[in-house]
């Protein structure tokens, strides 16, 4: 049965649940994308800091911020902590990427289902 623009399409309870699920997943994807970009920016800052530490004098203590305080560390300790932080962020970025891929897969399935029923009567694309 081909839907025409003037034809009334029945929206079942299941259809409404799919539309709601699509909306929630879309919002979740946007949140994950923001977190992903924030983590990538943090990695860039840490990379810049690592380059600055390469120029530092080995005999001078490095002020390293932990929470709200600064402590003095040796250059090697500061570089080790910096690498640990980069590793932690890399892991977080990988986890976020996996979560985004999973949400995108679910969204694609819901799009297929909803467009299959509603054709052009529904718009699921971002503006």
Automatic annotation (TrEMBL):
Q: Does the keyword Plastid apply?
A: no
Which key words tag this protein in UniProt?
A: Chaperone, Coiled coil
Mind naming one GO cellular-component term on file for this protein?
prefoldin complex
Q: Which Gene3D superfamilies match?
A: 1.10.287.370
InterPro entries, alphabetized: PFD_beta-like, PFDN4, Prefoldin
GO terms for biological process, alphabetical = protein folding
Family of the protein in this entry: Belongs to the prefoldin subunit beta family.
In Swiss-Prot or TrEMBL terms, this protein is called Prefoldin subunit 4
Q: Which organism is it from?
A: Dimargaris verticillata
Native organism taxonomy:
Eukaryota, Fungi, Fungi incertae sedis, Zoopagomycota, Kickxellomycotina
């Amino acid at each position: 049965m081909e839907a025409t623009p003037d034809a009334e399409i029945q929206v079942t309870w299941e259809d409404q649940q799919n539309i709601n699920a699509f909306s929630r997943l879309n919002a979740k994807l946007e949140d994950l994308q923001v977190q992903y970009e924030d983590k990538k920016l943090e990695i860039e800052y840490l990379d810049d800091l690592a380059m600055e530490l390469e120029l530092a004098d080995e005999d001078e203590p490095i002020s390293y911020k932990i929470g709200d305080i600064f402590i003095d560390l040796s250059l090697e300790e500061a570089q080790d902590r910096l690498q640990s932080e980069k590793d932690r962020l890399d892991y977080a970025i990988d986890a976020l990427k996996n979560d985004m891929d999973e949400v995108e897969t679910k969204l694609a399935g819901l799009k297929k289902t909803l467009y299959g029923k509603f054709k052009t009567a529904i718009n699921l694309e971002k503006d």
